Amino acid sequence: MGHFIDEKRLKVIGGKGGDGCVSFRREKFIPFGGPDGGHGGDGGNVILVTKDNLHALSTLRGKVKFTAGNGEPGKGSNCTGAKGGDIIIEVPVGTQVKDEDTGFILTDLTVKGQEFIAARGGKGGAGNLVFKNSVNQAPRTAIPGEEGQERNLVLELKLIADVGLVGYPNAGKSTLISKISNAHPEVAAYPFTTLTPSLGVVNLSQWDFFVMADIPGIIVGAHEGKGLGFKFLRHIERTQVLLYLIDCFEEDWNEVFKALKKELKLFNPLLAQKTFVVGINKIDSYLSEDFEERKKAFLKKTRLKENKNVFFISGLKELGLDELKEKLFMIVKEEKKNKDSDQTVLS
To answer: How far apart are CA 101 and CA 104, in angstroms?
Structure first.
């Protein structure tokens, strides 16, 4: 399996503009014609374009510099030089572009087919024809082409998903997303099975669906870079709702829930403010008699309600998954409706 690349540094350079031309009209019977030097062609641009069939920045592996073509110089007979060729860089939908030198976010490419000129080509220089005037009938001056724009970029991919799936390693996230969506992550009975983010489309009907993102398991200290989950937390920043998945064999469900929320908050406070649902997983194999007691204690401590924002499920045996899917879809639909309303008010 190829490496998943969600961050890439690039240098992009626009093409140099072509130089303007110094030329004079020379034809039979017109030995001393006036100036006819053409303009130089503009330099090519470096353009980022989103493609929906790309899911990582892996196609840019090993590439660090992109330079567009230079414009051609102007020619006699008032001929403008050809424009330099553009360089097209294809990136996944969800790519955020930053200026590495300033840290400024230049653009957020969230739509299929969206384009962004990352480095503009230099303007072609003017030929000597433009310098002709009543005083100077034979100017021998032309303007050289401008240098192209040069930038150091950082490309960061943030997956586009409706629901973000978070939990400790081995909480059953990969099993769950494989049961309710079209995703096929590796599933095994050991921590850190998930090494890269994955997306799955969860269908409720022909027309109703949402997209779920699974990231590597989060551990205590993830916000400090511990474990694998920290590196991929940005992939759930765009989600509408979070699903906290907790292994029912954990000693204290509430402590796990609080620890997960704390890690998200320390990484990005906005993550902890997102609408959420809790899933207590693997109930099919929990045979202890204290299950009902633990359930009541958890609901009391968190002030959450069963089948509203807490669901007791089994990803493996597919218990309670239909109810969970319906609830997540309802929340996603409502969040999108609220977001559209807010944008309408702002506009």
So the answer is: 8
Can you read off the two tokens belonging to residue 124?
């072609």
Instruction: Choose the CATH number for 163-346 among 3.30.70.20, 3.40.50.2020, 3.30.559.10, 3.40.50.300.
Output: 3.40.50.300
DSSP code per residue over 279-301: EEE-GGG---TTHHHHHHHHHHH
Give whole-number Cα distances, 148 to 193, 201, 252, 262, 284, in Å. 46, 42, 60, 46, 63
Pick the CATH number of 1-157 from 3.40.50.2300, 3.40.309.10, 2.70.210.12, 3.40.50.300: 2.70.210.12
pTM value is 0.74
Each of the 347 residues of the chain gets a pLDDT tens digit; together they read 345 678 899 999 999 999 999 999 877 666 667 899 999 999 999 999 999 888 788 889 889 999 999 999 999 999 999 999 999 999 999 999 999 999 999 999 999 999 999 999 999 999 998 898 888 888 999 999 999 999 999 999 888 889 999 999 888 998 999 999 887 655 444 444 445 777 888 998 878 889 998 887 776 664 555 555 456 788 888 899 999 999 999 999 999 999 999 989 988 899 989 999 999 999 998 878 889 999 999 999 999 999 899 999 999 999 999 999 999 999 999 988 887 665 544 44
Every domain of the chain and the residues it spans: 1-157, 163-346
